[in-house]
Amino acid sequence: MNQPELSKKFRPGESIIQSLLFLAGILSIFITLAIVYELGKEALLFFNDPDVTLGKFFGTTKWQPGIGQYGIWALVSATLTTSAIAVLISLPLGLASAVYLSEYASPKARSILKPILEILAGIPTVVYGYFALLFVTPILKSIFGDGIQVYNMLSAGLVMGIMILPLISSMSEDALSAVPRSLREGAYAMGATKFETSAQVALPAALSGIGAAIIIGVSRAVGETMIVAVAAGSGPNFSFNPLEAAETMTGHIARISGGDLSYNSIDYTSLFAIALMLFLVTLVLNLISQWVVKRFREQYE
Amino acid sequence: MTNPYPQDEAFHRLTKLRYFVANLWQAIFLSALLIAIVSLTALLYNVVDGAFGYIAYEYKKAPTEFTSTPIAELTKDELLVILKENLSSGAYGKLDKEQPMEERSQSDLLSLFLERLVRIDTKGTWSMTDSLMRGGEIRADVAEKYPNAILEFRSWLTPQFLVTPMSSRAEFAGVRTAVLGSLWLVGIAILFALPIGTGAAIYLQEYAPKNWLTSIIQTNINNLAGVPSIVYGMLGLAVFVRLMEPFTSGSLFGITDSNGRTVLSAGLTMGILVLPLIIINAQEAIKAVPDSLRQAAFGVGATRWQTVWHHVLPNALPGILTGSILAISRALGETAPLIVVGASTFISLDPDSPFSKFTALPIQIYQWTTRAQSEFHAIAASAIIVLMVLLLTLNASAILLRNRAQRKY
Known about the structure:
The structure holds 2 protein chains of 2 kinds. Chain A is mainly α. Chain A has a domain at 69-262 and 282-296: MetI-like fold, CATH 1.10.3720.10. Chain A has helices at residues 12-48, 54-59, 73-104, 107-122, 125-144, 153-177, 181-189, 194-205, 207-223, 226-231, 249-258, 266-296, and strands at 63-64, 69-70. A two-stranded antiparallel sheet of chain A has the order 1-2. By secondary structure, chain B is mainly alpha-helical. Chain B folds into 2 domains: 50-155, no CATH class; 176-405, MetI-like (MetI-like fold, Orthogonal Bundle). Chain B has a 3-stranded antiparallel beta sheet with strand order 2-1-3. Chain B is flat. The N and C termini of chain B lie far apart (61 Å). The relative contact order of chain B is 0.11.
């Protein structure tokens, strides 16, 4: 009787397919390396320019590469101000919405309200920019009169807050839903009100997810371009006054690259230095948020 | 030992207070949600408000200078004659080269007539609520300031708006070039990102061993999802526009009159931008396929790829398609990377190959919004409505697909 062939049959097709899929998986690493390499290459050219020194970059507050001024703080201050306003708006509102949706809303109400938040999340940012410039700014002008400029950081910050609100709300709600019902029911059994349960039992248990949501929200606010490009202003201005016009890091990149740009100018390389900073800041924030979730996540059974 | 907790009367008072506080906070939480809803309504109202309203305009040259028939009654042949006589030969020739004049429609020729010869000078525009609420006031105002002006209620969003190409005059501009550019862009992006993204997801879920390399790849993908879109734009600028210029400008294929700022570069940049999104969604979809299906396939002797191709993928397909629809929505709405990669600021020719210059819907909205004249804001609002309708249809189909994918085994 013939011995059955028991060794594994050689299938070249399987190996080829596996290698192709592996390449597809590795591609993402290539993308990150490409980002770091390309941004770093041009940023290095920028910093190697004899006119640019680290002291000037981190020490001065005027950004005009054309005339030799390289103080990044002019742009960073605007990014900080707009992001701070955005987080100030979106954090309480987003968290409160999440608490309401997960603790108080009936399933029917939730099925109506959640899609509304998802619509808010899906609106393109340039539409938010339009809203900021043509609706919010006139309202602010009627409140502050001449104290506020047409382009200002407050309008951009407010609208950015509304844009980030659904993000914080959905991530916090996921975190709150992950808290087991048994904890809440234990609190109810002892006579706690719904608010006391939410505030003293559910929220602390979901804190890691909520913390991650906040950090991701900040990261999103820092990287946002269109709202600030349309509504916040088009000139670097070192100021923390939200009623003034200023240009953020992202808005500056958008404005300069939208015009005529020769490939070997200091303007071109300076853009990459700014983009590199942006990339590193958001990368660090995202890593911190993942660490927060891993470190502080409560394990239930 | 005395009982430290409140008793009887004090207990009742405390309980009442606690419940009052609880209801107060419930109202506060609800109002936060309501603020979000009110903002959304305000945004939609603002956009719709801007797309309709009164416009007051004057003709720079009286139409009677060109013809004695009233504008509404001009036929196509009469218009052809008028245009040929009054436009410079250079301008006529250029228009003819874009599209032969005889083939254009009557309304097309009429708007050319109004745009180039009669020339409209807009004196003012008003929003919809203004036009409806203060109509009489506006009429009096215009009659006083611009006695020669024509005041009419205009809907800036018309079917014609969708098929007219770009123009430097707001009254005659349409979004056709932009919509086609966006479609080309999204098409190239999906063509690039969907196979690679699905392949990467299949690798990570089905083939990858649980070692450090796999977790690095996974963390990396999650981080890429959070990178600001403008950084992707810079990457596209450095790699596709500059580094790969022979490829993206088409000079490798014999096209000589373009540079790297083509719809191909932009499409590839968008593809890289949505790649993490597609991978994460596809991973979720593949994870959701129950293991029993795979085990059954292995049990009858299928190879890994046979299992994936014939059993896992068909069941994960609705989820993967949902992910690709979300990616399309994202790619349609992104503006910042396109600005950096070099969307043309003014282009009136439809894109006809991957190597043509391009513009996109969000870019148009951005440019029109940042112009000072209010008529540009009106067409920006109309373009926003077009974009939102497109996105709404896409997202609705994604939700339908997602509901179909929730089949329980």
